[in-house]
Design a protein that fits this description.
The complex is a heterodimer of chains A (about 260) and B (about 325). Chain A has about 260 residues and is an alpha/beta fold. Chain A folds into 2 domains: about 150 residues, P-loop containing nucleotide triphosphate hydrolases (Rossmann fold, 3-Layer(aba) Sandwich), CATH 3.40.50.300; about 80 residues, no CATH class. Chain A is built from 8 helices and 12 strands. In chain A, the strands form 3 sheets. A 6-stranded mixed sheet of chain A has the order 6-9-10-3-11-12, sandwiched between helices. Chain A has a 4-stranded antiparallel sheet with strand order 2-1-4-5, with helices on one face. In chain A, helix 5 runs parallel beside helix 6. The termini of chain A are close together. By secondary structure, chain B is an all-alpha fold. Chain B has one domain: ABC transporter involved in vitamin B12 uptake, BtuC (Orthogonal Bundle). In chain B, strand 2 and strand 3 form a beta hairpin. The chains are: A alpha/beta (about 260), B mainly alpha (about 325). At the A-B interface, helix 2 and strand 8 of A face helix 1, helix 10, helix 11 and helix 12 of B.
Chain lengths: ~260, ~325
């Protein structure tokens, strides 16, 4: 049941084969094979330093893998930079949320894909269109924020997380990658974010979720991948596993 | 000055929406005073000097004051772009000196005045670009790079000029220095034009948003695919460009290219940026603020001169006001 499959299935949106990453003398990833199915929530769990973040950073073009192949939407090694990954349809919700405090909610939602009007070098921001678009994006996911012209600095942790997820989805992402989305949140805000992730699934957005919270993983995910010491050690269906089994896999008590 | 005033009402509105109890409360909060230190300071100085010296508030004096402020305004705006990326350009005054020398020497060598001006601007912009390249690609702190450029460029200007001033007697520059529309001299109008273009670039283009994002949270901007290195290089290039424009205004004003560096210009450009409410940590500020800051510092010097205060006291007064502004800035939210 916990055997690691070698071949990615046909309905995988993102997969990799034999991925490795070396930082100087440190081997962060070795021979990692992984896939995420279309329309599913795929979780990656593991202890601190197990290589979850490094794997994700390789997959979304932040790090260039030392060896191995990445396949996204039928294309081999499709991007070398986060920008290219974004253009290809992978949006990442980083642990630090990648928000700019001094910019407004709308400016953050449209950061690096601003709507402009004009021709040639004379292209100016269409703020009205962006504010309207931001409102629509927020309403679609029922996100409650005081105003789109509000600076992000004034928002709560849960609201910031929601803005970051909303930005990822609003870009028309085929795949949203989330790194510990509820790590810094309280009970109520965690529940809100989990509802938001379920709503993404209803909208047929594929999600990769990195998490420490095994209960959350079993609540949200379809497939769970377990990492330990830079390797993938197990891949299980969330419905067929238990919290105890996940703990055993993560700690290495169960091989 | 239509655009900046409109943006300030937008600012006020967004503040009102930011769960501020009322506009009156906003005016009373320390953060308001920090944001508008330059405007408040300017109004205060104008009132004080008008009372102490009636000559101060006459058209000829205002005209002279604004013309004298032009160079500092242009430099402060260049400095603003760099400070908004959380950097600093210490080479700015040296670039003005080199730009002036290039203008003088090429003009003397028989180039037309426009060609000379363009060459001066290209040289200073190119050196600004080099600053940015060394800081981002070379991964050297901005402070060290621009300090090095300050020295190297000063030396280069001395070598090129042989330490001798070059007369630039040209009718175009003469007209630029002395002409005016109403009480607004051409140099001041040039500075206002630079400010308007800068405001549009900063607040109405993608580049502007990316610059604010880079200065605010560079890591976030990078994660979203903004090429923060390029944005920072562009900021230093714009700073160099402003240095070149200032060099033209300087040569027009004094009628020759002098191989002397005016360190006051550098310090006052940073001072104007701080007075203008631009955060030294980047990502926050305006163009109007530093413009008013530059006018305010020039007003201070002008007023003290009218009151026959010894020139020796002027740096003391500037220093006092800048530190005071920095103290107020601590309350900036």
């Amino acid at each position: 049941m916990s055997a690691v499959p070698n071949e990615a299935p046909a309905d995988a949106i993102l997969s990799c084969q034999g991925l490795g990453k070396q930082f100087g003398a440190v081997r962060a990833l070795s021979d990692v094979s992984f896939f995420a199915r279309k329309g599913e929530v795929t979780a990656v769990i593991g202890d601190n330093g197990a290589g979850k973040s490094t794997l994700i950073r390789c997959l979304v073009g932040v790090h260039r893998p030392s060896e191995g192949v990445i396949r996204f939407d039928g294309q081999d090694n499709p991007f070398a930079t986060p920008d290219e990954a974004r253009k290809a349809g992978i949006e990442t919700v980083h642990q630090n949320l990648a928000l700019v405090d001094e910019l407004t909610v709308a400016q953050n939602l449209y950061l690096n894909r601003e709507i402009v009007r004009g021709i040639g070098p004379f292209r100016f921001l269409d703020r009205r269109a962006m504010n309207r678009g931001a409102q629509v994006m927020l309403e679609r996911l029922s996100i409650n924020v005081p105003a789109v012209k509000q600076r992000v600095r004034r928002l709560s942790g849960g609201q910031r997380q929601a803005i970051s997820i909303c930005r990822a989805v609003g870009a028309g992402a085929k795949l949203v990658v989330m790194d510990e989305p509820t790590a810094a949140l309280g009970v109520q805000e965690t529940a809100n974010v989990e509802t938001l992730i379920r709503r993404l699934k209803d909208e047929h957005v594929s999600v990769i979720l990195i998490s420490h919270n095994f209960d959350q993983v079993r609540r949200l995910a379809d497939q769970v991948w377990v990492m330990r010491a830079g390797r993938v050690v197990a891949s299980v269906r969330a419905a067929e596993t238990s919290g105890n089994e996940l703990v055993a896999l993560v700690t290495g008590a169960k091989q | 000055m239509n655009t900046p005033s409109r943006s300030s009402t937008v600012e006020a509105r967004s503040k009102a929406e930011g769960r501020r109890p009322s506009r009156a409360a906003a005016v009373l909060s320390p953060s308001f005073w920090a944001d508008w230190a330059s405007a408040v300071g300017l109004v205060g100085l104008v009132i004080v000097f008008s009372i102490l010296q009636p000559v101060f508030l006459t058209a000829p004096n205002i005209q002279a004051l604004l013309v004298a402020a032009a160079i500092l305004i242009v430099l402060s705006i260049g400095q603003t772009f760099v400070v908004m990326t959380a950097g600093i350009d210490l080479s700015l005054a040296a670039l003005v000196m080199l730009g002036a020398i290039v203008l003088g020497l090429t003009h003397e060598a028989g180039y037309g005045i426009f060609a000379s001006c363009v060459l001066a601007v290209i040289v200073t912009s190119g050196l600004g670009f080099l600053n940015g390249l060394l800081i981002t690609a070379g991964k050297i702190p901005d402070f060290v790079v621009t300090l090095g450029t300050l020295s190297a460029v000063t030396g280069l200007a001395l070598i090129l000029s042989g330490g001798e001033p070059t007369m630039v007697g040209d009718t175009f520059l003469l007209r630029l220095a002395s002409g005016s529309i109403g009480i607004f001299g051409y140099p001041f109008l040039v500075a206002v034009a630079v400010a308007l273009v800068s405001h549009i670039v900063l607040y109405h283009t993608r580049f502007g948003v990316h610059l604010l994002a880079t200065g605010g949270q560079q890591e976030s901007a990078r994660q979203l695919g903004i090429r923060t290195g390029r944005v920072r290089i562009a900021a230093y290039t714009i700073s160099g460009l402003c240095g070149g424009i200032a060099a033209i205004l300087l040569v027009a004003r004094i009628g020759s290219a002098e191989p002397t560096i005016n360190t006051n210009l550098l310090l006052n450009s940073v001072a104007a940026v701080v007075l203008g409410g631009v955060s030294l940590f980047g990502g926050r500020g305006s163009i109007l603020g530093p413009l008013l800051g530059a006018v305010m510092l020039t007003t201070l010097v002008n007023g003290l001169t009218l009151l026959s205060v010894s020139a020796f006291y002027q740096p003391l007064a500037v220093g006092f006001i800048v530190v005071l502004a920095a103290l107020i800035m601590r309350y900036q939210k």
